[in-house]
Amino acid sequence: MGHASTFARTAILFCLALPLAACGTPSAYAPESLFDGGYGSTETKPNIWEVYYDGTGRIDGMVVEDYWLLRSAQIAISKGHANFAVLRLKKKMGSRCDPLRVEGTIQLVDSPVSGNALAVLDAQAIQEAMKDCIGGATCSVNAERIAGVGNLFEGSSWDMPGPCFTL
Hints:
Blueprint: H1 2-22, E1 38-45, E2 48-54, H2 61-78, E3 83-93, E4 99-109, E5 119-122, H3 123-129, H4 143-146, E6 157-159
Parallel strand pairs: 3-6
Antiparallel strand pairs: 1-2, 2-4, 3-4, 3-5
Helix pairs in contact: 2-3
């Protein structure tokens, strides 16, 4: 009984400590993982992408926004386009009104003509401004200002879970 009891206690402590350990450091710019959030993207139609960045509530909202812009810029550049048009943008909030996730639809374009887009952004300018964020560093440089677009996220809708509270 001694070994089984010790093993069971160790297993329980490990399971309880694992989520706490995962919350210890802010998310860095990286693909999504189970505990650290991150980016993800899917091409839904030719040159149309659904892009998200999940900050798991552990990093500043502006950083979540910047990382979403960076991922969108990387997709445009990797597919040979100079710009991307933001067609839809939504931010989801956590229970303490912390930005957990930014998601949106982008269209890869070569000319900066906006049409029905919320904004058309220079992918190379965003990637250059945020080059130090790539490779695991947690950073924010407010890519919106560098791209020359006012505050793209200010008018976007927030999906709120309910009233905000602080601990």
